[in-house]
Specification:
There is one protein chain. This protein has about 120 residues and is α+β, with helices and mostly antiparallel strands. It has one domain.
Amino acid sequence: MNEGVPVRPVGMASGYSYLEDSGTESCACDRSDTKVRDTFDIQANLARFHNDVMYFEKHYDELLERYSDQWVAVFNERVVGVDDDLERLIDRLREEDVPPERAYIDRPTHEDYVLIV
C-alpha cells in the first residue's frame, strides 16, 4: 500500500480484505497469523449470531403463530430446527451438523416470563 493513501475496510463478509482508493484489493494484515484468523472468525460468528437474533425478532409474530411454546433454532437467518424439548432439539442440531452453541435458540410464547440467571 502507498503511504498516505487512505484505506477503508470493505466489510465483514470479506474478512480481512481492504479496498484502497485505487480500487485494488489488498490485505493490511498477515493472513497466516493464527491470532488474526481467529479474530476474524470470532467477528464473523458474532455478526452471524447478531443477524440470527435480528431474524428471530423480525419474524417473531410468524414464529409465534407457527411454533408457539416450542424451541426454535435459527442459524444463518433460517429456522433449522423446532422441538418442544430443548435437549432433543440440541441433539437434532448436532445430528444435522449445526453447532447448537452457535445457533440462536429461543421459545416464542404468548406468556410473559422472566429469566433469572
